[in-house]
Amino acid sequence: MEIRSLFSGFKRNLISIPGWKTNKHLVVFESDDWGSIRMPSSEIYSRFISNGFDIAGSDYNRLDTLESNEDLSRLFEVLTDHKDTNGSHAVITANIVVGNPDFKKIQQSDFTEYYYEPVTDTLKRYSGRGRVESLWKEGYSSGFFVPQFHGREHVNAVRWMKALRKKSPAMMFTFANETTFSGDGDYNFMEVLDYDTPSDIPFMKKSLSEGLNLFEEIFGYRSRSFIAPCYTWNSAVEKTLFDNGVKYLQGLLIQSVPTGSFGNYKNKYHWLGSQNRLGQYYLVRNCFFEPSLSKTTDPVNECLNRIKIAYRWNKPAVISTHRINFMGSLDVTNREKNLVLFDELLTRILKEWPDTEFVTTEKLGDMIARDKE
Questions:
Q1: Where are the alpha helices (DSSP H) in 97-237?
Q2: What's the rounded Cα separation, in Å, for the pair 181 and 60?
Q3: Bridge partners of 357?
Q4: Prediction pTM value
Q5: How far apart are CA 35 and CA 122, in angstroms?
Q6: Parallel, antiparallel, or unpaired: how do β-strands 26-34 and 248-251 relate?
Q7: What's the sign of the alpha-carbon dihedral 50, 56, 58, 62?
Q8: pLDDT digits (tens, 9 = 90+) for 29-66
Q9: 3-state secondary structure of 97
Q10: By C-alpha distance, which of 245, 239, 233, 240 is closest to 278?
């Protein structure tokens, strides 16, 4: 166990060495999945259990759902309680999907065609979400919740539609309850840009173009960054993102490149500030605050340890924290206990590094670009 721990520590340090450097103590929170559907309600979750679906251990189906007014209001309270050395609030770069499947139209087509609806329409159909759009925009104008683009929807529409056309009892049940759950494990067809054949890529490019335009319609500005769902994409789509104004590509050290076989990927490595042939910059997450997803018993100290490693090598702390950590509509204790942990994390960051600066993904990207251009 001690040898394994030493190796893990060595690896964390090793991957932090290459790439852009800064002497500043920068903190970036990048949070994915906002706007996407998962489990619509606790009533529907109970319906799944009573119909024999084994999803008690499926975190995304057990805890994650479309964010509510209360979820955002409670999160905003924590963010605005903490200010950095410049007097700026803690800020989350909120990676949002701008659409969801249009279940009614898909069914009317007898599953021959895929349709989506704008997330603003989805919000109207869910109770307790009447102020979500205005809260998104309030958070943006106040500088502590800054939307960026995560996809047109968070479902691999091609694979999902193939599964639906088979009309298995499990898929028909999950569809009738307006979920994209496959009925098996934790699989919700989430890997949007994965494919079974490269011939699917044009569909994906179209979805990205449409999604980025819809993002601008909703928020009034172009998204300058993008994070591929499940960190999976073929580099061919980067030109589409570039043509639509995306300059910064969020992700991990490893890009999972599709091979045409689900679960089998080629690894492509990126360092913080490295560029592709189009001049887009890769931004690499190196810290994690994922109490609802991680099996660690101490997510705050785990995150702080990674921050220390980042700073040791003059890197910003780019922290991944998914929406699921702050959702309370299905299980209010999930939201409340994690907000306490998030508050503790922010408090300890500011105590340990009083010169901390909270910045967005865009600002980090701009800092890197200025140094390199």
A1: 103-108, 119-125, 132-142, 157-165, 169-176, 201-219
A2: 10
A3: 26
A4: 0.96
A5: 9
A6: unpaired
A7: positive
A8: 999 999 999 999 999 999 999 999 988 778 999 999 99
A9: strand
A10: 239
